[in-house]
Amino acid sequence: MQLNRFKYSKAIEIRWRDLDAMNHVNNSVYLTYLEHARSHYLHYAIGWDWNSEGLILASAQIDFKVALLLTDAPLVHVRCSHIGNKSFTLDCVITAIRSEQTIVAATAKTVLVVYDYATETTRPLSDEKRQRLLDFEGAL
Q1: How big is the CA angle at 102 (ends 92 and 69), to the nearest 5 degrees?
Q2: Are 2 and 33 in contact (CB under 8 A)?
Q3: How far apart are CA 34 and CA 78, in angstroms?
Q4: Contact present, 70 and 98 (Cβ < 8 Å)
Q5: Residue range 125-138: average pLDDT?
Q6: Which residues on adjacent β-strands are paired with residue 114?
Q7: What is the Cα–Cα distance from 1 to 116, expressed in whole angstroms?
Q8: Of the candidates 74, 72, 66, which has an alpha carbon nearest to the alpha carbon of residue 105?
Q9: What values do phi and psi take at 95, rounded to 5?
Q10: 3-state DSSP assignment of residue 139
Q11: Is the pLDDT of residue 59 over 90?
């Protein structure tokens, strides 16, 4: 995974409650880390207005590589890799520095769908949001 292709990253602080009985971050917590970074990415990259356009998570795939520990300081890298009519895909990489080396703890892919909560239907991604994603990311 080429980290230089990611223009956005969000630092995550591991909480004691994130750990499981084996003293590493529980696999279910990774989804929370991805959600946190994703919401900040959408605000930072394209100024997503949560009051006017909803999103639903349609798919999440995580490949776990190395367990995160309480002493790690993870960084979640986020980039848009595909834009469809009503959805877009975000690729994520969770890294940490351990023993002066960057380790990849997990890679992930999430698909988000534009959703109208009032009518409970999907909607096309607006041309404005599509262009903001393209402007931020450059070539996908």
Answers
A1: 80
A2: no
A3: 9
A4: no
A5: 94
A6: 55
A7: 34
A8: 66
A9: -120, 170
A10: coil
A11: yes
Q: How many CB atoms lie within 10 A of CB 22?
A: 8
Mean pLDDT for 51-60 is 92
φ, ψ for residue 68, nearest 5 deg:
-85, 145
97 forms bridges with which residues in the sheet?
102
pLDDT-based confidence at 85, cuts 50/70/90?
very high
pLDDT score of 12: 97
- The partner residues of 56 in beta bridges, in order of sequence, read 113
CB 93 within 8 A of CB 40: no
Question: What is the rounded CA–CA span in Å between residue 6 and residue 37?
Answer: 13
Q: Tell me: pLDDT of 1 over 70.
A: no
Angle between helices 29-46 and 127-137 (to 10 degrees): 100
pTM score, whole prediction: 0.94
DSSP state of 67: -
Is 88 within 8 Å of 77 (Cβ atoms)?
Answer: no
Query: Which of 117, 104, 55, 105 shows the shortest CA–CA distance to 80?
Result: 55
Q: β-strands 87-98, 101-116: how paired? A: antiparallel
The residue type of 37 is A
Average pLDDT over residues 87-91: 98
